[in-house]
Every structure is written in C-alpha cells, then in structure tokens.
Amino acid sequence: MSEEAPDPLAEFRRANVEGTLCLARQAVEAGVRRFVFVSSIKVNGESTSPGRPYCAESTPEPMDPYGISKLEAEEGLRALAKETGLEVVIVRPPLVYGPGVKANFLSMMRWLSKGVPLPLGATCNSRSLVALDNLVDLIATCIEHPSAANQTFLVSDGEDLSTTELLRRMAFALGKSAWLLPVPVRLLEAGAGLLGKRALAQRLCGSLEVDISKTQELLNWSPPIGVDEALRRTAESFWKHQS
C-alpha cells in the first residue's frame, strides 16, 4: 500500500516468484503431491464493468508490480507441474477481511467507530470481498478435492456490496451509526485526483466483481458464513484490540 522500493517489481518477483517456486521445488523433492497457491484477483486486473465479473478463465491483465509477480508465479507453477507431475491449485481472492484485518478496511472501521462523517453515501459500485473464514475453508477443500487438481479458482463471500452498503453493515456490526454523506462519485474522484489518491478512489468507488460459479460447481463448495456474520467477527476482534 505504500511501496517505497526503488524497483518494486524486482522485490515482488523475489518474494512472490522466486520464493514460491523455490518452495514448490522443495515440495516436489519431499514427495508432496499437491501445491495450493494463494494468488490474487489482481492477476485479472483492478476493476470490472457492470455485469461483467472476472471468472477463472478471464484473460489476465495485471496492472501493478504485485499483480504481475503473482501472475508470473502462477505461470512458473504451471510449468513446474508439467515438468514434475505436481498437482497445482491456484486460488485468487479479492480483498480478504476478518479478525486482524489491516490497511484500508481497518481505517474504515476506525472512522466508523469514532463517528467520523464519510463522503461515501452515494456509491453505486459493486465489489466482491471474501471473509478469512471462507477463504480458509476453500483452501482446505482444495487440499483434498480430486477435482481441484491443476485448476484455478476465484473466491468470494457470494454477495457483492457497494462501498456505501459495506459501510452501513460494518457500522451495524460495530454497534455504531454510519454517518455517510451523499457526495457524488465524480466529485470524490476529482478531489482524490488533486490529492494524488486516484488508486484509493478506485478502490472505494470502482467495481470489482468475481464469478465463483466454477468454484461452487466443480468443488460443490459454498461460503460457510455470510457477510454479516463475518463482519460481526471482524468487529468483535476490532473492539477487543481497542481495549
């Protein structure tokens, strides 16, 4: 979120590509049969158009060094799978939240907990998220399910939300009222541009939807907990660490 390396792509490649492939080769040498790699929806891109969610077969279009490095790791793992017979399963999550969440999600919880007015009462975007519990459940499924071998899966909570709706439901989980001002999105984006915060405005106002139908059908999988329960658990952890 605040990358300061002189060459971010080189650093991401060192961790996400070289580190991943080194571990995978050691797994092969140790006799491991299946390797589950948690990639990122950033491999697909940064945003979607209305009614056109990303699916597992969508053409990758990473836009930043992190996404590029995750795609290169995926490609390296697939090559290693062909070479060695290792079964590779790739999971691409969108934003992951839950107890201990950090970055922008934590900032929003802090604002809501303090009753700070937010200019996000008029967003009509749609974003897919995934609760940590749901992501872990899918990873556990991918470890053993015979149909998971050499497949790529997208994952989410199965319910997409606008930023406005997310904030309202997050506030409810926190036991607070959301003070959301209906500022037009174009005005927000213009202001963010002047402040050098275009990327933040995109995450708050833009859409990013994923289609998990392949995951559900091939693995007979559904998210075990809903958004409101996941937000409740996240809020509970938040308050615990505020005291």
From TrEMBL:
Signal peptide: none annotated. InterPro entries: Epimerase_deHydtase (IPR001509), Lipid_A_modif_metabolic_enz (IPR050177), NAD(P)-bd_dom_sf (IPR036291). Gene3D superfamilies: NAD(P)-binding Rossmann-like Domain (3.40.50.720). CDD domains: UDP_G4E_4_SDR_e. SUPFAM superfamilies: NAD(P)-binding Rossmann-fold domains. Residues 10-150 form the NAD-dependent epimerase/dehydratase domain. This is Nucleoside-diphosphate-sugar epimerase. It comes from Pseudomonas fluvialis. The lineage of its organism: Bacteria, Pseudomonadati, Pseudomonadota, Gammaproteobacteria, Pseudomonadales.
